[in-house]
Design a protein that fits this description.
The complex is a heterodimer. Chain A is an alpha/beta fold. Chain A contains 17 helices and 18 strands. Chain A has two domains: 180 residues, D-Maltodextrin-Binding Protein, domain 2 (3-Layer(aba) Sandwich), CATH 3.40.190.10; 178 residues, 3-Layer(aba) Sandwich (D-Maltodextrin-Binding Protein, domain 2). In chain A, 44% of the residues lie in helices and 18% in strands. In chain A, strand 9 and strand 10 form a beta hairpin. Chain B is mostly helical. Chain B folds into two domains: 178 residues, no CATH class; 245 residues, MetI-like (MetI-like fold, Orthogonal Bundle), CATH 1.10.3720.10. Classes of the chains: A alpha/beta, B mainly alpha. Chains A and B meet through helix 1, helix 3, helix 16 and helix 17 of A and strand 2 and helix 9 of B.
């Protein structure tokens, strides 16, 4: 008896490893950030109502953050989402891994005409458009406490104000994204050209120059300030006087500063305006093996990034639209954070494609500054460091 | 030198001679080990040779039933009345043939076996805007290895089938009766019950544990990385290139980063193990002392840190030490420091902080172990030592320490190898940071090999290098374990101890 029981239990254990799956009809899976899941579900219903041809598609919306979506797609394309939202720095990686499909020709023409130049540039690799632009608000600017910072136009004044009030100035200088505020502002350039396959073929860099050394010295000086804190997320920041952050934290900033909430473009530092990147979010479609499903995905993605839906999304969750007409609407014009971003955008370049290793390299440079490694370095030594940085970046090009 | 002269030497001289003797013996021991390995391989080949010879003799001497069994498995058993066994053999052969020569070429074993040497040649292409997927290198590798396993299992079963025929023939010739199917079924529940119970688990372990490990070892010899991702792209064999890249002896990128990370891994494992061990022992001895009151309370307080999951406590502690965390804020508020201490931003500070925090986590466990062992040391050993005039430190060195080291020898070894792979502590406390320009592949100054492997897999999808690191970690752990295990007194002096 005991022996039979033992056998039965072993078999049951093995069977529990078996799982079943079934599918029929057109099933579309969408990955969007958690705070827009409900909004997207509503919009999908609106799409089905407006397009009776596609009334019988099954759409599932799952919360997957933009930062993770690209990695998850690349790890397993076949079980990934059919439509997914991501930020433009992942585009080259997705194209190289064969995880994203080109935008349909007719839709591409519409996208190019209706969205701002930065976002259109961000969704193209070479001449091929790979995604539908959704927002133009992934850049960064300055949030500050009105009662602490009196003049947000100069970095030294901001630091002095924060020191006097015992508050901190937050900026994430060990991030390849925020670091460029100094380098680009001082006049350097670091961009990579890609071909239509997403491979990086050329580096355009002028970091190893007087301007680069100037930017590096500004960062070292900033790191020495007692009011400086390295970071860019309000959720982990304490005692904030001012922070370089983006629109995704506008809600948290409003809660933190209350009536003293204010935003402005980035300040001037050591005589030059801090620049940086303009960032964009977009929707991509994964390569499909079925023509009908592909047509449905095309139509759905185009709808979710159309003018009306972008405006509705702004009203629902505050995401700055990339659609030109939506940007002109009153609601968007009145937003404090978006106004600051708009002012800062004039000094930014649209973020292009960078090799994955560049981000780690830039963090290494930032970490070395934070570790006070270059505190006593002279200009010549700093120039050598930047030359090494450039050489390593050059090594990341596709061979 | 004679024994007398040896004992006349001073302590340091004896130690130096001991070390010298160890290194002189090392080649001899290595040679011995290699000889054993060689003998093992030779005996393996001999075994295969005898089996093949046996195949020929069985065919020559067997009757027509045996000979037919070479083609149709199970025929001989069926013909001699053992229907159960015969049908099982035949079923296995049918399943194998079905799998290998399945009509739909995409799923047959032969398809995967054929493509295994190239890992796929048909690229993905587009028809209009529709994507048509070509070969999937991932599945070719996986199912190719599975097919190889299957073929090995088939050869083994076929050989068993032949042997059975030979044995049955002998038995019948000598006038014995063969086991009927009913006997077989009964024995499966009785004397052969272990086969019944283990069949499914062994199958499960082979498919879900051994096969994936073999698969990942093979990935180390391919170029499976971010630009070669199936199903869109193919990857192929590249031989030893990945190993060459990681073990390069020049001072640039991956080679030097690997050495750097390996050195820190070994240093970390050493400190994490031995610092915890001696401090835990110290705390246990202190609590155990005669004059201490409320022993249970002290032990309970220390054990409470075990109750909180490491995830929670480590994440929280890492925030505490951040530049704007509790510790820095209070120290600055009290005016003791003017700038935040670089706990996580300076490499040396980060390493020391991690080791110290690990001590805080590890001491309770070691204290419990040490308390249990200390209670076992006979008290009269201490009595006689005190009478002989030994002080506390001498008693510790001559009685307590040898006893503890003897009992916990294997534990120390496992703990050391475990700490080489201690992912949790490093990842939760510092995430492997701070990064640096000098370290390639996004490795950080506090990265262990295992956390670097994790970053490579999850962030860079650079599976090929991650697989190589995995293999190297295994080699490092295995070498340390094998060498040290045979050296520790717990194994050598077991009889002495008893």
């Amino acid at each position: 008896m005991k022996k039979i029981l033992a056998i039965v239990l072993t078999v049951a254990m093995m069977l529990s490893l078996v799982s079943f799956a079934s599918a029929d009809g057109i099933d579309i899976k969408i990955w969007v950030a958690e705070n827009v899941v409900d909004f997207t579900v509503e919009q999908v219903e609106a799409f089905k109502a407006a397009n009776p041809d596609f009334a019988d598609i099954n759409v599932v919306v799952e919360p997957v953050g933009e930062g993770d979506a690209a990695s998850k797609m690349i790890t397993d394309v076949e079980s990934g989402a059919d439509i997914f939202g991501f930020a433009q720095d992942q585009l080259a990686r997705l194209v190289q891994a064969g995880a994203i499909e080109e935008v349909e020709e007719e839709n591409a023409k519409v996208v190019e005409a209706e969205n701002d130049a930065g976002s259109v540039g961000a969704v193209k690799l070479g001449d091929v458009m790979y995604a539908y632009p959704m927002t133009s608000d992934n850049g960064y600017f300055l949030y500050y406490d009105k009662s602490v910072v009196t003049d947000p136009s100069d970095l030294d004044k901001i630091l002095a104000d924060c020191e006097a009030a015992g508050k901190s100035f937050y900026m994430e200088i060990n991030s390849g994204w925020y670091q460029t505020a100094f380098f680009f502002g001082a006049g350097c350039e670091l961009t990579f050209d890609t071909d239509s396959e997403g491979a990086l073929v050329k580096m355009n860099s002028s970091y190893a120059s007087e301007a680069g050394v100037k930017a590096l010295k500004s960062m070292i000086k900033l790191a020495k300030s007692p009011a400086f804190m390295n970071g860019s997320s309000l959720s982990t920041a304490t005692n904030v006087g001012a922070i370089v952050d983006g629109t995704w934290d506008s809600g948290a900033a409003k809660d933190l500063f209350g009536d003293n909430y204010a935003a402005a473009k980035l300040p001037v530092c050591d005589g030059y305006q801090l620049g940086g990147f303009g960032g964009f979010k977009m929707l991509g479609i994964k390569p499909q093996t079925d023509d009908d499903k592909l047509a449905a995905c095309d139509a759905l993605a185009a709808f979710l990034t159309s003018e009306e839906v972008q405006l509705a999304r702004y009203n629902a969750v505050g995401w700055g639209p990339s659609n030109l007409k939506a940007q002109q609407s009153d609601a968007v014009q009145a937003d404090v954070a978006l106004a600051a971003l708009g002012a800062q955008l004039a000094y930014t370049i649209p973020q292009g494609q960078y090799p994955g290793e560049y981000w780690g390299l830039a963090t290494g440079l930032g970490d070395d500054i934070l570790a006070k490694k270059y505190d006593d370095a002279d200009d010549a030594a700093l120039l050598e460091i930047l030359k090494g940085f450039e050489a390593t970046c050059e090594g990341y090009l596709a061979k | 030198m004679t024994d007398l002269e040896y004992f006349k030497l001073s302590k340091p001289e004896r130690m130096i001679r001991g070390i010298g003797r160890f290194f002189l013996n090392l080649p001899k021991k290595l040679a011995g080990g290699i000889k054993k390995l060689g003998l093992l391989i030779v005996s393996l080949f001999k075994g295969i040779g005898t089996n093949i010879a046996d195949l020929f003799t069985t065919f020559k001497n067997g009757d027509w039933k045996t000979r037919l069994s070479y083609l149709v498995m199970g025929f001989g058993s069926c013909a001699r009345g053992q229907w159960g066994r015969g049908i099982l053999f035949f079923l296995f052969q049918t399943v194998f043939n079905l799998y290998m020569f399945f009509p739909n070429a995409q799923f047959s074993g032969c398809y995967y076996l054929g493509k295994l040497s190239t890992l796929g040649t048909v690229a993905t292409y587009k028809e209009g805007r529709k994507t048509v997927y070509g070969d999937n290198s991932f599945f070719i590798l996986l199912y190719g290895v599975l097919t190889l396993f299957f073929i090995i299992a088939f050869i083994y079963t076929w050989r068993m089938n032949i042997k059975q025929n030979k044995v049955s023939e002998e038995l019948l010739k000598n006038g014995h009766k063969l086991k009927t199917t009913k006997d077989d079924v009964n024995s499966l529940m009785d004397s052969q019950f272990h086969k019944t119970m283990l069949a499914l688990p062994v199958l499960g372990v082979t498919i879900f544990t051994i096969l994936p490990i073999l698969f990942m070892i093979l990935v180390a010899f391919t170029n499976f990385d971010a630009t070669h991702q199936p199903p869109g792209k193919l990857f192929t064999w590249v031989g030893w290139d990945n190993f060459r890249q990681l073990l390069a002896t020049d001072t640039t990128s991956y080679g030097s980063t690997f050495r750097h990370v390996l050195l820190w891994t070994l240093i970390w494992a050493f400190f994490a193990t031995f610092l915890n061990y001696f401090l835990g022992m110290l705390v246990a001895i202190m609590i155990n002392k005669k004059g201490i009151k409320l022993k249970k309370m002290w032990r309970t307080i220390l054990v409470m840190t075990i109750a909180i999951p490491q995830f929670v406590s480590l994440l929280y502690v890492s925030k505490m030490f951040a530049a704007d965390g509790l510790i820095n804020t209070y120290l600055m508020k009290w005016g003791w420091i003017s700038a935040p201490l670089p706990f996580w931003t300076d490499p040396t500070w980060a390493r020391i902080t991690i080791i110290v925090i690990n001590v805080w986590i590890g001491i309770p466990y070691l204290m419990l172990i040490a308390t249990g062992i200390l209670m076992n040391i006979p008290a009269d050993l201490y009595e006689s030592a005190r009478i002989d005039g030994a002080n506390a430190f001498q008693m510790y060195r001559k009685i307590t320490l040898p006893y503890m080291l003897f009992v916990t020898g294997p534990y120390l070894l496992t703990s050391f190898t475990g700490n080489i792979n201690n992912f949790n502590v490093i990842f939760l406390l510092s995430g492997g940071k701070p990064l640096s320009l000098e370290l390639a592949g996004n490795a950080g100054h506090t990265d262990l090999l295992i956390t670097w492997l994790y970053k490579m897999t999850v962030n860079d999808t650079n599976y090929k290098l991650a697989a190589v690191i995995g293999i190297l970690v295994f080699i490092v752990s295995a070498v340390i374990n094998l060498v040290v295990y045979n050296m520790i007194p717990s194994i050598k002096n077991e009889e002495d101890f008893q």
